[in-house]
Write a structure and sequence with these properties.
The protein is mainly beta. The chain is globular.
Length: 362
């Protein structure tokens, strides 16, 4: 009997993913007789992690720890015949690790003029002006000479909190750890990423890729503020805590063409027909429509990013049933305007995403 055939579109054998980053894979499966493909099962080691019943067959995991692992895809056809393909993969950090050049925290109320730059902890809490604490970290990016695939801020937990914690972009880099106080804090900008506290002595991770990319095009200094949405006390080790505890910025440069190609053109790699995602007219106006088609129910997120990778607009739907949907650009922008230039619009759903470049003319 003939068996189905299966091959990985991405990754290749012995590929290395960034540590603490999702692993994803794309496979193509087809039958070489009259049978049809029923499903593709994905295994990491001996554990089944996903079954996909619709082409293109796609896997995206949660954050992967460091170390080697095997990824196996098994295609089963309508007659029960199977074929498999196994890759030897790994997660490792092969990029650049930066320690902060400044880090501290501030506190309001009677402590608004107190500096905590020599503290070995960074405290984060929201509980009225008198008890609120916010942390600040700063990194020198002048040694980074390539575009980045990913950038992750990692902070080790000394006292576990139970709220949501956010990393905010800070445009003003003039602050210094030995002088910063509540009274002199620079204004914080938009939320870059949000995370729950990690367990005691484990690492919290914030995806700050867009902010790093922006600063590499700017003054090559990255400042971030860490804030809480609740009253739980979170304590993180500062740079003064010493080796093994210091906050760190992990940067993976774009040194693998195949990885960059997948991350930028995932819709094409998935071989999704372009009529499943249409933007018209393009160059765009506020009357431009985005039309996309889902083959199964899914939450949907629409992101518009500028050429630096910064998110300029976002639109979320908790659930969409299978079918075709249309959005006006003005629904996504919510009264804001796009300056002239080139942007990327992505419709993200449970099997991947559609993407297109859009142009805003002068």
């Amino acid at each position: 009997m003939l068996s189905p055939e299966i091959k990985f579109i991405f990754p290749r054998d012995e590929f290395e993913y960034p540590v603490n980053w999702p692993a994803f894979a794309l496979v193509k499966a087809f039958s070489n007789d009259s049978a049809s493909i029923s499903r593709v099962d994905f295994f990491i080691g001996d554990s089944l992690v996903k079954t996909d019943t619709r082409a293109p067959y796609f896997l995206r995991t949660g954050s992967m720890p460091g170390g080697p692992f095997t990824l196996t895809a098994i295609a089963t056809d309508s007659e029960g015949k199977q074929s498999s393909k196994t890759l030897n993969l790994a997660t490792s950090f092969g990029g650049i690790s930066l320690d902060p050049i400044d880090d501290t925290y501030i506190r309001g109320g009677n402590n608004s003029s107190t500096n905590y730059g020599l503290s070995d902890v960074l405290k984060v809490k929201a509980s009225g002006a008198a008890f609120t604490r916010r942390a600040f970290v700063k990194f020198d990016l002048t040694g980074i000479h390539r575009r980045v695939n990913s950038a992750i801020l990692r902070l080790k937990v000394k006292r576990e909190g139970n709220n949501n914690y956010s990393a905010l972009f800070v445009a003003d880099d003039s602050w210094q750890e030995e002088s910063l106080t509540w009274d002199t804090e620079p204004p914080a900008g938009e939320v870059i990423d949000t995370s729950l506290s990690a367990p005691l002595e484990e690492w919290m991770n914030f995806d700050v890729t867009a902010a790093v990319a922006q600063e590499l095009e700017g003054d090559k200094t990255l400042s971030l503020s860490l804030v809480s949405d609740g009253t739980s006390n979170l304590e993180l080790y500062s740079g003064e805590a010493g080796f093994g505890n210091t906050p760190v910025l992990l940067i993976n440069p774009r040194n693998d063409p195949s990885a960059a190609r997948v991350s930028e053109n995932l819709a094409e790699e998935l071989e999704i027909s372009t009529d499943r995602f249409v933007v018209y007219p393009n160059p765009v106006s506020f009357k431009t429509t985005l039309s996309y088609s889902l083959d199964s129910g899914s939450a949907v997120q629409v992101l518009i990013t500028d050429f630096k990778g910064s998110v300029v607009a976002r639109y979320d739907e908790d659930h969409r049933s299978a079918g075709r949907y249309t959005l006006f650009l003005e629904q996504i922008m919510q009264g804001r305007y796009l300056r002239h230039g080139v942007y990327m619009v992505r419709v993200i759903y449970n099997k991947g995403y559609f993407s297109k470049k859009i142009v805003v003319a002068e």
